[in-house]
Amino acid sequence: MLDADFFSYDKMLEIEKGAKKFNIPIIRSNRKLVASADGGLENPSSLVFSSAWNHDHAEEAPKRFSYPSLSGVERPKSDEDIAFMSILELGQLMKSKQITSKELARIFLDRLKRYGPVLESVVTITEELAYEQAKHADELLAQGTYLGPLHGIPYGLKDIIAVPHYKTTWGSRSFKDQVLDIEAWVYKRLKSAGAVLLAKLVTGSLAYDDIWFGGRTRNPWNIEEYSTGSSAGPAACTSAGMVPFAIGSETAGSITYPAARCGVTALRPTFGTVGRTGVMSLSESLDKLGPFCRNAEDCTIVLDAIRGKDPDDLSSRNIPLSDPFAVDITKLNVGYLEDAEMDVVQKLQSKGVNMVPFKLNYTLDSAQGILNFTMDVDVLAHFDEWQRSGQDDDFEAQDQWPLELRRARIVPAVDYVQAQRARGKLIRDVRDSFKVDAFVGNATDWERVCVGNLVGMPVIVVPTGFKKISDAPSDSTRRRTTITTGIYASPEHDHIALALAMAYQSVTDHHKQRPPIDDLGPGDSIPNPPRKTIPPRQLRG
């Protein structure tokens, strides 16, 4: 009945067991929530059809942000110090002719080669392309042409983003030799801004968690831990000063979790802000691209370069964001959840923000069920042949996509649509509950990750401190567990979350700390392999 006779008997039993445990409870919950009345008069699906043949209709191009100017920036004596400078600081060094883009490329390429194998965070170094782009950036600057704050700045891309002439492996042994003759839209945007691509960074296999065909990416702050989330390479490489910034993606937690684990500032923007042409797709209604950076200011600069309408991505839009650098935070009402880091609440309050207790209310039993139905069915549609041909048997972690996508094969179409109706109700509930300009709360609460992605809500992950690791090998170890929080805004109000994050970081220095990848401290050493396994989470995108 399902044209799925390629499943073995054992796999069919596995699917039956999984359907009883996972599929049926979700189906019944959604049916009760949105399908108890006939006629379709209430709870419309969140997936909307457009009859337009031409999606190139004119939209007003977004107005660019006004960046702060720096002066008096001096070149540090060590390459290590240069590696942890912000985008604006590096740009000022180039504009004042204290360093060239080619020199910057060399510094960061050396670090990628040195630390990439240790952290298992780099797939392909694009050295020839990097020096070519850096040379062009230097030539333009010598001619008096300045393309903006990303001019000559090195960066990395998650390896689901296609770049011509280089492998785009999707982190999977099934596709590890794949070369796509496609120039991803986000890569085009960064190239036109003058940025210099150094490397394709690790994605978990088919954008699921941190396991890939070359190993498992580690956390620079604690080498025994893994980075979690499929944007593992962008998070680890930014944290370790191997790139000034990187582009990752999130479908369900793959920006927020690795950013929190690796202690970097990262933005999951409003859905549709950044075009996705040339990027491996999990779910067209959930996938988002966003930056991993040193600080919120850098996130703002990168977002400004990559946002805007992608003509080949029907979900992308010219979202009219206000300038984050011009937001008057003293006029904002900002909520804080019970799990918010109170240091953030207090610091923002001291900056004049009106902070109030807040709770996000909705009537759903569990957002995860809706997200799983949406994502898993969409992924299977994109990897149908992969499953039918048995390539899922070679997947790096059999308890991840192979298991989930077999269950997805038997999700009835009617119940997929009911999940979208339940998602529509969730969106309306969250909209009606969102009585503040933004709110502060845990960025890695799993239910909140599911809600945020289903709604398309932006969040910026902000480092807020550190604590001792558990089971430390010595009292003097420099390894730490990072503490972070999330600043959430309503869709199309990313500028508010960014402005609040910049305000917090203007009076703190947690984001400026460097992980101990060279010196773990007395009585500590880099284990190989790691002694402690971190339980995997279902983090995709």
Task: Give a summary of the structure in a few sentences.
The protein has helices at residues 9-34, 79-83, 87-95, 101-119, 127-142, 185-192, 232-239, 256-262, 296-306, 342-350, 367-382, 384-388, 401-408, 413-433, 446-455, 494-505; strands at residues 122-125, 154-158, 196-201, 211-212, 215-216, 218-219, 222-226, 246-250, 265-268, 288-293, 333-336, 354-357, 438-441, 459-468, 480-489. The strands form 3 sheets. An 11-stranded mixed β-sheet has the order 1-3-2-8-10-9-14-15-13-11-12, with helices on both faces. A two-stranded antiparallel ribbon has the order 4-5.
| Oligomeric nature of the chains | single chain
Q: Tally of extended strands? A: 15
Percent of residues in helices: 25-40%
Q: What is the overall pLDDT average?
A: 92
- Share of residues in strands: 5-15%
Question: Termini distance?
Answer: 31 Å
Task: Give me the CATH architecture of the largest domain, please.
Answer: Alpha-Beta Complex
Strand order of the largest sheet: 1-3-2-8-10-9-14-15-13-11-12
Given as residue ranges, the uncertain stretches (5+ residues, pLDDT < 50) are: 529-537
The CATH homologous superfamily of the largest domain is called Amidase signature (AS) domain
Tally of structural domains: 2
Class by SSE composition: alpha/beta
CATH fold name of the largest domain, please?
Answer: Amidase signature (AS) enzymes
User: What overall form do the CA principal axes indicate?
Assistant: globular
- Gyration radius, to the nearest Å? 23 Å
- CATH first level of the largest domain: Alpha Beta
How would you sum up the major sheet? 11 strands, mixed
